[in-house]
Amino acid sequence: MKNPAPILLFIYNRPEHTRQTLDHLFKNRLCEISQLFIFSDGAKNQPDAEKVNQVRKFINSIKGFKNIEIKEREKNLGLANSVISGVNEVFELYDRVIVLEDDIITSQSFLTFMNEALDFYQDDSKIFSVSGYAYPINLPRAYQSDVYISYRASSWGWATWKDRWKKTDWNVKDYEEFKVSKSAQNNFNRAGKDLTQMLHNQMKVEIDSWAIRWAYSHYKNNAYCLYPVESFCRNIGTDKSGTHSAATKKFDVKLNDSEEKFNFTHELKIDDGITNSIQKLFKPSPVRELINLIKNKL
Prior knowledge:
The chain contains eleven helices and ten strands. The protein has 298 residues and is α/β, with parallel strands linked by helices.
């Protein structure tokens, strides 16, 4: 393994979530030899300021990594700009990153899996990113590998390389063409029927998401996200505490603490069974589809 990739942690105003995220990260086997960058966004308003200060007091007391660099933003950038600018900043120094937000808890094997995957797939240009999270789906019985690829990008404990990240058009300059092309939308929606609507919402400035634009970059570059078959991280922010998170338990997973050798392969292909299961997981309800249809015609 090369030197471990730097870890980027993006935090805001959730002291307990941040504590849990770091408590689990401390237990990772590569923690002591990994560089940690913490990006603390500035408060949006006075009510948020107290919790932002609580979080900052905590992060300035932590130890346990090779080195810790804390970036305290004076102003509120918002999640999207915070992540995009933070990742860009670290890519001035490194060619790969592992990224977490303040509501992702990890297993002890998370950093090992992510770093080994980054090494193994570095020269495979079709793999645009690596996810530490695995969807709670049933894999086909005959599936043998420890990983699979999907059209859908993940934002829950993920990693990428500088050359892939730099291909992303954060302004989505071809959106006007995309929004009138049903074939383009259907292709994008192979990763989940919710994606096109999220991109519409982003371009109307109804949401503030870097992740949907990152997902669109995967689609535009005919690339995939690599997933483990068992999850090395879990989102604890689906309790209405996150920026875009609704309360739900349908994405809950058990953490994989396995120390076994990972069965990576360059012979990965899209599995229709896995793709269909992910599509079902993100399929909007009939009511939501009707609301979206009406909304998009206004």
